[in-house]
Amino acid sequence: MKIELSNKLKKLPPYLFIEIDKMKKKAREEGVDIINLGIGDPDLPTLKPIIDVMAKEIYKPENHQYPLGSGLLEFKKAVSDWYKERYNVNLEPASETMALIGSKEGIGHIHLAFINPGDVVLCPDPGYPVYNAGTIFAEGEPYFMPLLQENGFMPDYTKIPVNILKRVKLLFINYPNNPTAAVATRKFFEDTVAFAKKHNIIVCHDAAYSEVYYDGQRPLSFMQIEGAKDVGIEFHSFSKTFNMTGWRLGYAVGNNEVLAGLGAVKENIDSGAFHAIQRAGIAALKLPVSWTDEIRAVYQKRRDTLVAGLRSLGWKVESPKAAFYVWIKVPLKFSDANKDVKSISSELVKFLLTKCGIVSTPGVGFGSSGEGYIRMTVCAPEARLKEAVERIRKVW
Ligand SMILES: *Cc1c(COP(=O)(O)O)cnc(C)c1O
C-alpha cells in the first residue's frame, strides 16, 4: 500500500523544535555535554501548592469522567477573578472565558471556526509556528507581517496591501513576544483595535508570556484596551507562568461570539481538559503573586548573567524586558567571516552546537524576517549560562 501525506501537511515546514531536537540528540549520542538554550520550556518544577492540589484531586472519582464543555464554572470564575485582580478587566465567566488543553490547542484550532479556503490570516514574522500551521490546516492563506527592530518588533499595518486586507479574517499578535522578547505599547494595541474594527478582522492575542516580565514592568493585557472585547480574544497559558508545560492547560478570554466559534470546533474534536488539572489550575490562579515573583527573580538574574556574558564577548545584545528569550543579532564578526552562507542564523546555530555544544535556535526558523538573529533561552541554571559564555569565548 502507498501511504501519502495530505497536501496540507506537505505544505508545512518541519516543526522547528523537532529538527533542533534531532540535532541535539545526535550531538548527545556523540558524547557532547550539551547546554540546551533551544526550546522555551521552563527547567524549574511546577510550583508545589499546585502539585499538592493535583495529588488530592486525582483520587476523586468525580474528576475521572469526560470533562466536556468549555471548562468547570469554578475554573472560569477563577480566570475571571484573576483578570479582575491583575488587569481590572471584567469578564463574564460563562461566556467570556474558556478552558483549553494548553493554549497551543486553542491557537491551532481557532482557524477552523472562521477560515474558509482563500481567507487570509495575518501572522507575525518571525513568529510562533502554530499561527501558520493552523492557517494551512484550515486552507487559509497566511500573510506574514514582518516584525522589524526599528518598529520595536511590532507589525506595521499600513504596509499590508489593500487587496490582501479585503480577504483578511484573522490576525495573530503575541506580546510579550516569542521569539523577539518585545513588549507591546499601549498605542500599538489601540491601533490594533482600530485596524480590526475598520477591516472587520478578528484579533487573537497570544499572551503566553504575560507573567514572565522583568524590572517590575508588568505587560498590558490586550483586554485592557477599550473596544478589544468587540474585536477579539486573548490566549493564556499556565505553561510559562507556573512551570506547567507538561500539564496541558490554558485558556482564552474575550469576545463571546469568537469563543463560541472556537468552542464549537473543540466540541467536535476534543472532550475538554482533565478536571483534576483544571482544579490544579484554579489553585495556580489563586496563588499569591509572591510565588511567581520568585520565578521572575530567577529568570531576571539569569537574563542579566547571559546578557552581560555575551556583551563581554563583544556581542551587541539587547536586554529583554519580558519573556525568557534573548534575541541576538548575529555579530558582524561572524557574518563578515561567513559571507557566502545561505542562512547566517543557521550557520551561527551550527557553529555554537558543533564548536561549543550549545543548542540555540536560528531566527530564520520563525520566519524569513527572523534571519540575521538567533534565539537563546534562559531556561537553564546560571552556572550553565556562564559555562556557555566561556565555551564561546574559547573559540570566538
Ligand atoms: C509556549 C508558547 C505557547 C504554548 O503554550 P501552551 O499553553 O503550553 O500550549 C503559545 N504561544 C507562544 C508564543 C509560546 O511561546
What are the SSEs and their pairings?
Layout: H1 7-11, H2 16-29, E1 35-36, H3 48-57, H4 73-87, H5 93-96, E2 97-100, H6 103-109, H7 111-114, E3 120-125, H8 130-137, E4 141-146, H9 162-165, E5 168-174, H10 186-199, E6 202-206, H11 228-231, E7 232-237, H12 239-242, E8 250-254, H13 256-269, H14 275-286, H15 289-312, E9 325-329, H16 332-337, H17 344-356, E10 358-359, E11 361-362, E12 373-377, H18 382-395
Parallel strand pairs: 1-10, 3-4, 3-5, 5-6, 6-7
Antiparallel strand pairs: 2-8, 7-8, 9-12, 11-12
The protein binds pyridoxal-5'-phosphate.
Could you explain the architecture of this structure?
The protein has helices at about 5-10, 15-30, 50-55, 75-85, 95, 105-110, 110-115, 130-135, 160-165, 185-200, 230, 240, 255-270, 275-285, 290-310, 330-335, 345-355, 380-395; strands at about 35, 95-100, 120-125, 140-145, 170-175, 200-205, 230-235, 250-255, 325-330, 360, 360, 375. The chain is α/β, with parallel strands linked by helices. The protein folds into two domains: about 5-45 and about 290-395, Aspartate Aminotransferase, domain 1 (Alpha-Beta Complex), CATH 3.90.1150.10; about 50-290, Aspartate Aminotransferase, domain 2 (3-Layer(aba) Sandwich), CATH 3.40.640.10. A seven-stranded mixed beta sheet has the order 2-8-7-6-5-3-4, sandwiched between helices. Strands 9-12-11 form a three-stranded antiparallel beta sheet, with helices on one face. α11 (about 230) links the parallel β6 and β7 (about 230-235). α15 (about 290-310) runs parallel beside α18. The mean pLDDT is about 95. The structure holds pyridoxal-5'-phosphate. Pyridoxal-5'-phosphate (PLP) binds near residues 174 and 178.
